[in-house]
Amino acid sequence: MRAAVIHGPNDIRIEDVPDPRVQHPGDAVVRVVNACICGSDLWAYRGVAARVPGQRIGHEFLGVVEETGAAVSGFAPGDFVLAPFVWSDGTCDYCREGLQTSCPHGGFWGEVGSDGGQGEAVRVPYADGTLVRLPAEAVAEERLLPSLLALSDVMSTGHHAAVSARVRPGSVVAVVGDGAVGLCGVLAAHRLGADRIIALGRHQARTDIARAFGAADVVAERGDAAIEAVRELTGGQGAHCVLEAVGTEESMRTAISLARDGGAVGYVGVPHGGSAGVDIGQMFSRNITLAGGVAPARAYIPELLPDVLDGAIDPGAVFDRTVGLDGVPDGYRAMDERSALKVRVAL
Q1: Among 122-131, 134-143, 296-305, whose mean pLDDT is lowest?
Q2: CB–CB of 252/223 below 8 Å?
Q3: 86/163 Cα distance (integer angstroms)
Q4: What are the backbone dihedrals phi and psi of residue 130, each rounded to the nearest 5 degrees, phi first?
Q5: So what's the pLDDT on residue 49?
Q6: How far is CA 251 from CA 201, 265, 274, in A?
Q7: Is 218 helix (H, G, I), strand (E, B) or coil?
Q8: Please, where in the chain does CATH 3.40.50.720 lie?
Q9: From CA 185, how far away is CA 180, in angstroms rounded?
Q10: In whole angstroms, how large is the CA radius of gyration of the chain?
Q11: How much of the chain, in percent, has pLDDT values that exceed 70?
């Protein structure tokens, strides 16, 4: 079979790799129908996150079960399924508590020794604990595929930011980051009943999506200027809830400063710049809560899926380019150059 592999910075290739096969009784083999490129994949592409030459890449996909191991009871060949970006056993204490990202038997697609999602098929460990079955009719609804795919990571991660920031009806929300996760955070905040959403971003194509997702205001400034602008919009107080979806020191510093006294910051941006942006003194004196981390998408998908199926939310709008498998290297270049927001891979 063919799959995307990374050989070094700016070097993504489509190569022949071994066909996945059932190796353990709990495994399933899934033929990929849709995958995508994530903003976090760019850190490996840019050389910021180390990878072994020839390592598989990609962690978001949906597809059709082709084969199952003897111990798999919840799925059968032909089932249409969605895979969250982390596999998990579904039975440990963490999984039962809804924190599948801490499962001791879990892992991330594309790790050394595992299959990446940007390929023709994937071996799924612990299929019963990992996969989510999708309605059979959904596979025939091409318009639904982008939004279903978004549940595997970006929509669930945006939702995690909103939940961690305690978004609730009537709250004022500020969102730091205009990438796919930040935009899905806007959508998540709107879904949870936020009264007013302020999106920080300076790229019109992206802020247009933010407005469509429910943002009432857009702030193009950064740093201290952004903090001042948000405070002006909120009568000098700041936001009850701040969603941080970038992961740099500057973005974290901005997020904490945007929160009003007693507010909360939900952070989901993958850290890539240290922790100096966390001002413990400011957080202490102003009673700011900081929560978040890696989103347990497997816990959120069942909650979000009905809203996608009935059209209440359309997170698939973050995909602005679709390529075939051979187009994946160009898709990485487009996202790296910011000529594409998020690239979907249709197989």
Answers
A1: 134-143
A2: no
A3: 19
A4: -100, -55
A5: 87
A6: 12, 11, 11
A7: strand
A8: 158-292
A9: 9
A10: 20
A11: 99
